[in-house]
Amino acid sequence: MEITSQDTINQPFKEKPSSCFSNSLLSKTLKQPIVYSYSYKRHQILYQYNIICHFHWFKMNNNNNMVFVLIHVFVLFSISMTVVNSVDWNFPAVFNMGDSNSDTGELTVGLGFQLAPPNGQNYFKTPSGRACDGRLIVDFLMDAFDLPFLNAYLDSLGLPNFRKGCNFAAAGSTILPATASSICPFSFGIQVSQFLRFKARALELLAKSRKFDKYVPSQDSFEKGLYMFDIGQNDLAGAFYSKSLDQILASIPTILVEFETGIKRLYDEGARYFWIHNTGPLGCLTQNVAKFGTDPSKLDELGCVSAHNIAAKTFNLQLHALCSKFQAQYPDSNVTYVDIFAIKSNLIANYSRYGFEQPIMACCGYGGPPLNYDSRVSCGNTKILNGTTITAKGCSDSSEYISWDGIHYTETANQYVASQILTGKYSDPPFSDKMPFLLKLKF
Question: CA 128, CA 226: separation in Å to the nearest integer?
Answer without folding.
Answer: 24
